[in-house]
């Protein structure tokens, strides 16, 4: 890589007197509230649904966080290839099925959630797929990796193919930091904090355009988009901004409904398989062009089996799904691990120099990338290992855990999304022993439970970066003056998410946009997990250095 990648980042944030920090905080919170950089407040005690006329500032950082300019460009550059790769993985049904089936077995062994998704996918394939197109609104997440000998690099944490959230709020927080830089120049605190180092970032446009492209491909006048949401979603405004853009820029109305509501509000036309939505406020059914899931990524969203049934009903329809079952399965951690195996990238992304090797049937005739481009993508991989399958890599993974004092330097991941599921460092050894103990009670013909997990090397982000994290808090009556927010200076880690959009089917990618935009989520260094919605991270933006 080019030598302009620094080996360290500037110490951060620059120092300012408290009075100036307070002023920036006041400006930031007013900007957030007046620009829709907001959440619904937590439910008051005793309420089961959110308040409808109240909002709070989303958790945000007061300063943008430094990010190496060349690595930011690289992350954006490889997104188009990542989109193509995951499109091909999804369309190569045989390959995908074999990979995900390594995570569950027998009647109830292994990962039950992946099994349910696979069962739905199988049912739809048996009954006949009525809509060959899949819509991907992806987010590829990275951390900056620092080790003692090499320049800084970006390493992929995971690739999300369902409910890739925060595109809208990310655009707003970029606007916030630019506003603070323009309005106050951050009081001259750092030469980096100039508007030209704060890149414009507008994922709303690109994400809505992806939905509009799918709607156009569906091609039936009068049809509308359905967003499947969680009941009581507190991050609703991030979703609303996409709805407004769909309407304002593309003239497409959309609807929101939970899986539970859809059990009664949706129906399939028995001859055409068109999906009809009859919202509770209307007796007039609406034809649905695109089903966009902002729910359904966690087993918690399927509290009863009827909710899997309704998901499969939607899947059987002619509507274009974002994502399909297959595309959701392609986003599993297991697929990420298998893609890192030698030869697998070449199978999906053949280059002039790998011609003659075994190639996926869906890669034939598709866009060719250069060896350098595919290598750049591979450079973003961290070490990934399977466990429990008895193969060479699996044995290596198990040996690495043993030799690292029970897993120091590694993370163990189940097939889950949404944060809070991983096992870190020395907790891995005892966790695996516990799984083995339970396995001893089962028939020895079954694969070990750890086969449903993957092992990954920990990325080590640069130290000495801090930021001021602003969060709404419930005011305490015995506090004077009444405080409704906290401002904590913390040592942090920032995770860059890069959005991508692709529309594809029948072995062909018909739309691919890798320049949709980015997200930066920043969390206290002591916290292992990164979810903004679960309260660990704040929304941030990059200052390029
Ligand atoms: P989820 O699907 O639950 O979001 P992730 O793979 O994104 O799962 O992991 C959650 C969080 O754990 C990430 O946001 C990141 O903070 C941390 N994490 C995951 N993998 C690694 C890794 N290899 N190195 C360092 N941190 C990681
Ligand atoms: Mg994640």
Describe this structure in words.
- With 545 residues, the chain is α+β, with helices and mostly antiparallel strands.
- It has 2 domains: 417 residues, no CATH class; 76 residues, Dna Ligase, domain 1.
- Strand 7 and strand 8 form a beta hairpin.
- The longest helix is centred in the first third of the chain and has 18 residues.
- The mean pLDDT is 95.
- Bound molecules: adenosine-5'-diphosphate and magnesium ion.
Number of strands: 23
Percent helix range: 25-40%
- Measure the end-to-end span: 16 Å
Mind telling me the C-alpha Rg?
A: 23 Å
Q: What ligand molecules are bound, each kind once?
A: adenosine-5'-diphosphate, magnesium ion
Domain tally: 2
Most strands sheet: 7 strands, antiparallel
Task: Write down the overall mean pLDDT.
Answer: 95
Helix/strand-derived category reads alpha+beta
Q: Which geometry do the CA atoms define?
A: globular
Number of helices: 16
Strand content: 15-25%
Query: Low-confidence runs (pLDDT<50, min 5 residues)?
Result: none
